[in-house]
Amino acid sequence: MKEQWSSKLGFILASAGAAIGLGALWRFPYLTGTNGGGAFFLLFIFFTVLIGMPLLIAEFVIGRGSKREAVSAYKKLSATGLWKWIGHFGVVGCFLLLTFYAVIGGWVLTYTFLSLTGSILEPGRDYELLFGSIVGSPLISAVGLIVFIGLNVVVLSFGIKNGIERVNKYLMPLLFVFLLIIIVRGLTLDGAMEGVKFFLSPDFFSITTAGTLEALGQSFFSLAVGFSCMVTYSSYLGNEQSLPRSAGSIVILNLLVSLLAGLAVFPAVFAFNLSPDSGPNLLFVVLPTVFEQLPFGGLFLSLFLLLFFFATITSSFSLMEIMISAFTQNKKHKRNRVAIISGILVVIAGIPAALSNNVLADVLILDRTVFDLTDFFVSNIMLPLGCLFIALFVGFKVKKSLLIEQYRMESGNLSGTANLWYLLMQTIVPLVIVIVFIFGLF
């Protein structure tokens, strides 16, 4: 019998865990900082609601409608043609994404360990220099990658209910609590309101075509759509749950966490005269700076980093689960072995990205390190293409009757929006993806 989520809440928290990780807490603040603040945030909201949410529902419909993991789902719904390769595209995309995502997860794990041992907070310390020393160490980066993937393998070996769902159910709510603590403290700092203004007051002249593409890519990245992760997650879903309501809950949680992440970071950035466009290291520099000012700051930093790490790893579960489920197809006796093999392959492929800030720092491809090139290729090219493929598949290949039936199931007063959603998938969603993608490239 196919394994299922034990409850609607378990599914939503697991799906939110897949979305709310590095995408919202790490990637969103630095992309917002490098793209002018408020205008980028508004574009991100627009793309998330208009494009991301319909795509999320589409992946849910494909997964529950087929009751299969990503690779088998497309084959079942379209036995002929190239459509069946969308699932394979998603598996490859998740694999490549994990090769650099797990490196960042290793950094978070390292910071968590150092914080728990009291080795981070020191008065007057240069936290930017500390971050540079950590990512600049080949040993620390490689070990962090290995341990991060190893933990994924352990949790995913236990399956859906006893592994993914159990971890998410207890840890995701705690993350909100500690984000609120940071926000309250950050807003009391001198100069904090300048950060709020930067984040919430849009300046549309600061947005470029590249920034627009990044806002679209972030809406995909933060909802974990495009690589069929949610197809796999929703294949474990029963018929008693409403897909649009579940998608709406996940979108709201995702936007809320993105808002909280911005309010946690930017007031502190401006209060301590840091640069909002300092890039990927922004969070690793800002967090210690803020917690150093707090009573019992070391304790709070340790707790937050621990929860930040759990948010990071719960996102990676969905990336590895699509790989594992593709090769096990719900045969439990294979799961442990496939999880281990998948983990080993990700580690091997991730080593070049782990060494991109140290040993391989001078190895540039198209003026980018291996880490940056993989990030750009996956986030700005593969994700939009994956979303386009899914939109066209749902809009023009799958039987409309199956889609509408899945959409309306247990949806109550939302069932009347089924045809509007289907129309969006045929017109606006693919059109916007193509336009933004082409402008972003050229």
Automatic annotation (TrEMBL):
Main location: membrane
Transmembrane domains' residue ranges: 9-28, 40-62, 82-109, 129-158, 170-188, 220-238, 250-274, 294-317, 338-356, 376-398, 419-441
Compartment list: Membrane
Record has NADP as a keyword: no
Bilayer topology term: Multi-pass membrane protein
Alphabetized CDD domains for the sequence: SLC6sbd_Tyt1-Like
Nucleotide-binding listed as a keyword: no
Top-rank taxon, per record: Bacteria
Keywords: Membrane, Symport, Transmembrane, Transmembrane helix, Transport
Annotated Pfam families: SNF
PANTHER family reported in the protein's UniProt record: TRANSPORTER
Similarity-based family: Belongs to the sodium:neurotransmitter symporter (SNF) (TC 2.A.22) family.
Entries under NCBIfam families matching the protein: Na_transp
Protein name, per record: Transporter
